[in-house]
Design goal:
Elements: H1 7-29, H2 33-52, H3 56-76, H4 78-89, H5 95-99, H6 102-109, H7 113-132, E1 136-141, H8 147-150, E2 154-159, H9 162-168, E3 179-183, E4 186-192, H10 208-219, E5 222-227, E6 234-238, E7 241-243, H11 248-259
Parallel strand pairs: 1-3
Antiparallel strand pairs: 1-5, 2-4, 3-4, 5-6, 6-7
């Protein structure tokens, strides 16, 4: 029997492939890619035995294993499944829609005093620390709460100021090794511990601060700024991606475009 292959079948195959690739990326980030490959091999074997070769006895055994295995996988990968569902529900997957209006938002917010009060001290502090090659890691909350991360550090709850940011990341400061968390236009905590990304594609020259920044942007809807202690380079991690070697002007532009939409 000749199977009629239409446009709907092509779309079906494409969506399944996209879903599998997305799951593969999540598994790779959580260092469970070998388990994912093992599951895929088992699924292919099950399809061949049950639906292609129609081997009844072995097929029925594999059917039972699949039905029970689904529950086991949910228990085993509950954290990864939760992250998968959070990513689906996150607004970052519809960013292309909001970017259509980003230019208009930028024009409306160019002279907003609240925006400048928040962004300019951060930019100037990063520029000053970059020139002195002082390492820094600043995480700015967007739509996901960073309350859990804040609890790992020291409570600050202070206005955002260039001098305070520089003092916290001064090399002899007890809080300079951790991350600073900014939320609701205030410095909420410092010396915080962040989740570290295990992405194998991170360039070798980037250190632990960069991995922590990327990991936070992958797990939370947040923006992380890194000042490298080795090179003085300024980097932004957002939506699981790096923006490297930024000037002060470029950093201000990114903060304006990515943050102000959430504070309108």
């Amino acid at each position: 029997m000749i199977y009629d292959f239409g446009i709907k079948d092509a779309i079906d195959i494409f969506l399944v492939a996209a879903l599998l690739y997305y799951i593969y990326r999540l598994m790779r980030e959580s260092r469970s890619v070998n388990v994912f490959m093992g599951i895929m091999i088992f699924v292919v074997l099950w399809v061949i035995v049950s639906h292609v070769l129609e081997m009844r006895l072995l097929g029925s055994i594999l059917d039972k294993l699949v039905s029970v295995g689904v529950i086991g996988l949910i228990i085993l990968f509950q954290q990864d499944i939760r992250k998968f569902l959070e990513n689906i529900g996150s607004h970052r997957h519809s960013m292309f829609i909001s970017r259509l209006f980003a230019k208009d938002r930028g024009r409306r917010g160019e002279n907003d005093p609240k925006k400048k009060e928040m962004i300019m001290p951060i930019v100037m502090a990063c520029l000053a620390m970059s020139k002195r090659k002082e390492g820094a890691l600043i995480v700015i909350e967007r739509r996901d709460s960073l309350q859990e991360v804040m609890q790992t550090g020291e409570r600050i709850d202070a206005n955002i100021s260039q001098r305070l940011i520089e003092n916290i990341f001064f090399k002899n400061s007890p809080l300079h090794d951790g991350a600073m968390i900014i939320s609701n236009h205030r410095i909420q905590s410092a010396g915080c511990i962040l989740p570290v990304s295990h992405d194998l594609n991170i360039p070798k020259e980037l250190g632990l601060r960069h991995r922590a920044a990327l990991g936070t942007s992958q797990e939370y809807d947040s923006l992380a700024i890194v000042v490298s202690e080795e090179t003085g380079g300024i980097t932004v991690a957002i939506n699981g991606e790096f923006k490297l070697r930024l000037s002060a002007e470029k950093l201000e532009s990114i903060l304006t475009a990515e943050l102000f939409q959430d504070y309108e």
